[in-house]
Every structure is written in structure tokens, then in C-alpha cells.
Amino acid sequence: MNAEQLERLRSAKGFIAALDQSGGSTPKALKLYGIAESEYSGDAQMFDLIHGMRSRMITSRVFNGDRVLGAILFEGTMDRDIEGRGSADYLWNVKKVVPFLKVDKGLADEANGAQIMKPMPDLDALLTRAVAKGIFGTKMRSVIKLADPVGIKAVVAQQFAVGRQILGHGLVPIIEPEVDIHSPNKAEAEKILRDELLAELNRQPADQPVMLKLTLPDTDDYYLDLVKHPSVLRVVALSGGYSRDDANTKLSHNHGVIASFSRALTEGLSAKQSDAEFDAALDAAIASIYAASLT
Fold first, then answer.
1. What is the CB neighbour count within 10 angstroms for residue 240?
2. For residue 51, what are the domain limits?
3. Considering the domain boundaries, does residue 283 fall inside one?
4. What CA–CA distance (Å, rounded) separates 192 from 289?
5. What CATH number should be reported for the domain holding residue 283?
6. What is the per-residue pLDDT across 89-112, written as a single tens digit (0 to 9) for each?
7. Of residues 28 and 163, more confidently modeled
8. Catalytic residues
9. Is residue 11, in this structure, part of any structural domain at all?
10. Residue 2 within any structural domain of the chain
11. For residues 53 and 58, what is the distance between their CA atoms, to the nearest angstrom?
12. Angle CA 89–98–289, to nearest 5
């Protein structure tokens, strides 16, 4: 575990850029970026295009460690180069942005109002590769749709079990039990989730910290106990389908929580923009998300 990176994540100002769209979400991300599905064919070309989008963001003069603390990468991005360097190496050694890797393989079918993660039989091999490539931490996502204690407990138990496997490789896991913003009983689900997270964190040694990535809660500062917990390195928020303006407003009302936005970060960016237009749009996005992360 890199001590300089650990300290940046613990105390520096900024937010985490989520650049980890996978196979299922890439066509939508490209469409929002102004590239229609009719403009490419096959996964290889699709992933070339999304890598081009991510590279354009990362290499932009406005994207650096002054405001962006970390970036979450898709496995395919980790395995590719940016300006002749491995993506993680480029992020840290050129931009001073801490690199993370998305490690989950997607969601299992819904049960008890929640979707746990699909099995990850090759996780140890992936984590070994990630360490060799200079990755600091990982991210993995589950989804909670209903305030069902059985489903939520299953999500949190799996997240921490896998998180401890990740810690065993010297990496910091971002535990992400997303509560669907359209849940009919979102506030109740958040109460059950908070209690389950605190129970697991109270069993987690402070010298083996985790990060939490959570949906912006219905009640301001609802996760303050998690923010202050000695076993939590940082609490970050996902945008979860909210517009950037809405996500920023909600985030600014939650003290100690910083952004880890994906779609809300890329909102307004287009493949058709000139470099000057692209940089200006990205700069505006980064500035607003950074400001919302300062509270």
C-alpha cells in the first residue's frame, strides 16, 4: 500500500472520477458522448472508442491531482496504455491521481429486494495483476432496491467478505452497496444499510481501512457516523442517476463525503467537441464537483 497515496485519500481535497463503465454500460456512455451504436461494430471497436474517451479526459490539461484525487478504471483500461505508459502508471506518475480498479463481474439476479455480485472466481489473479500495474484500490458494486433486511444483510456481508480478500493483497477496497434512487422505501433501506455497515466496520481493524461508496441519502449527513469511523478511509458518493446539478446540491449537504461520479462527470462532454471546447466543458464539470466535495 503506497503511503503517499493513502495519505492523499485520507486528507486531501478533491473527488474520485469513476471512469469504469463496463461492457453493459459502455454503449450508453458512448451515446451520451455523441457516438451512436451505428458508428461502430463489435466489442473491440466499442472498447477502443471508450478508451479514447477516457484517455481524452485523463490527458486533458484540466484533469489532475489538484482537484481529482483518484480515478476508477475498468479492467480493459488498466490493461491499456495512455501516451505510452500503463494507465495506472500515467494517472499517478504524470497526473498525481490515485488509480483504482473496478473488479466486480456484474450483478446477480434480484433476490430479497437486492442484487449481490456475481461470483468472481478469478479475483485473486486479477488483484495480483492490479498490484503489479500500480493500482491502489478496487471498487465493486451491489444494488439495493427494497428495504428488505435479508437482502441488505446479504449485500453487506458479501461486500465485506470480498473486501477483506482485497485487503489481503495490500489494496484498499471501495465497498459500494448502492441504494436505487427510485426505491419506494429508500430512506428505510438506508437505515438498515447504515446499521449493517456499522456492524461490519466495528469488526474491521482500523489499520485495514475500507472506503465506502454510497447513494446520496434522503436525510442530510445521514452517514456521518460512517465518515467518522476509524476503519473508514473515505466515504464517497455515487451520482446514481441524478443530474450533475442535483447530485452536487445533495452532496454539498453531506459533510465529509466527496464525489465519485461517473455519468454526472461526463455530462456535457462530446466526441464532436474541439479540444478547447472539451477542456472547457470538463473543467466546468470538475470545478462544480470539486466545490460540492469541499463541505
1. 20
2. 22-292
3. yes
4. 28
5. 3.20.20.70
6. 999 999 999 999 999 999 999 999
7. 163
8. 176, 213
9. no
10. no
11. 9
12. 130
* pLDDT for the residue 24: 72
Q: Which of 238, 143, 152 is nearest to 192 (CA)?
A: 152
Instruction: Count structural domains, the chain.
Output: 1
46 and 22 in contact (C-beta within 8 Å)? no
Asked if residue 273 is part of any domain, the answer here is yes
CB contact at 8 A, 160 and 175: yes
Q: Grid coordinates standing for 110?
A: 434480484
Q: Is the pTM of this model over 0.85?
A: yes
Residue 129: how many CA atoms within 13 Å on its side-chain side?
A: 13
- Sign, Cα dihedral of 117, 55, 212, 267: negative
Tell me if 293 sits within 8 A of 67, measured CB to CB: no
The H-or-E segment that residue 266 falls in is: helix 263-266
C-alpha cell at 102: 473496478
Rounded distance, CA 277 to CA 274, Å?
Answer: 5
Cα 253 to Cα 220: distance, rounded to the nearest angstrom: 6
pLDDT tens per residue across span 185-243: 999 999 999 999 999 999 999 999 999 999 999 999 999 999 999 999 999 999 999 99
